[in-house]
């Protein structure tokens, strides 16, 4: 089937089975490989992207459910003021260790700050709850979000 998507501000038409997860459309059809595959069952957050401004697990989002919602991936996160501030804070605090989960972390963090510019620690913890980091960089992630929130 053909799907007309808006990805990172561009109209893209892809041909894919309706049930194909957005994750594979982004990576294999559109070459946007910044979005990572971790668990494939919605448990790790590595595949997080924005759909209509909300953080979603792209491994659990069939392309047929994307509809007219704007998709934003890690490749475009720096285009928003919030995303750019987060990227700066991430660099300043040297957040990543192996780095594999960090695209998903940044996408969840930027969705949070777009909705709540000054979140409390507990709100950060709640929003970032589904993003797992096997290197345990959580403390730096939290501090980077607080730094970006100013
Ligand atoms: Fe989607 Fe783990 S790969 S949540």
Automatic annotation (TrEMBL):
- What are the protein's UniProt keywords? 2Fe-2S, Iron, Iron-sulfur, Metal-binding, Oxidoreductase
Matches recorded under CDD domains = fer2 (cd00207)
Domain 2Fe-2S ferredoxin-type, chain residue ranges per copy: 1-78
Q: Which InterPro entries match?
A: 2Fe-2S-bd, 2Fe-2S-bd_dom_sf, 2Fe-2S_ferredoxin-like_sf, 2Fe-2S_ferredoxin-type, 2Fe2S_fd_BS, Beta-grasp_dom_sf, Diverse_Oxidoreductases
One example of the protein's molecular function in GO is: metal ion binding
PANTHER family linked: BLR6218 PROTEIN, OXIDOREDUCTASE WITH IRON-SULFUR SUBUNIT
What name does this protein carry? (2Fe-2S)-binding protein
Q: What is the species listed in this Swiss-Prot or TrEMBL entry?
A: Novosphingobium flavum
């Amino acid at each position: 089937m053909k799907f007309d998507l808006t990805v990172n501000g561009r109209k893209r038409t892809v041909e894919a089975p309706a049930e194909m997860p957005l994750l594979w459309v982004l990576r294999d059809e559109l070459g946007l490989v910044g979005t990572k595959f971790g668990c494939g069952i919605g448990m790790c957050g590595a595949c997080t992207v924005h759909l209509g401004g909300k953080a979603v697990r792209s491994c659990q989002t069939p392309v047929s459910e994307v509809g007219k919602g704007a998709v934003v991936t890690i490749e475009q996160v720096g285009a928003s003021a919030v995303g750019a501030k987060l990227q700066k804070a991430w660099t300043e605090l040297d957040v990543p260790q192996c780095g594999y989960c960090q695209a998903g972390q940044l996408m969840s963090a930027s969705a949070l700050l777009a909705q709540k510019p000054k979140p409390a620690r507990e709100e950060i913890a709640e929003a970032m709850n589904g993003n797992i980091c096997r290197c345990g960089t959580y403390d730096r992630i939290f501090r980077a979000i607080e730094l970006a929130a100013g």
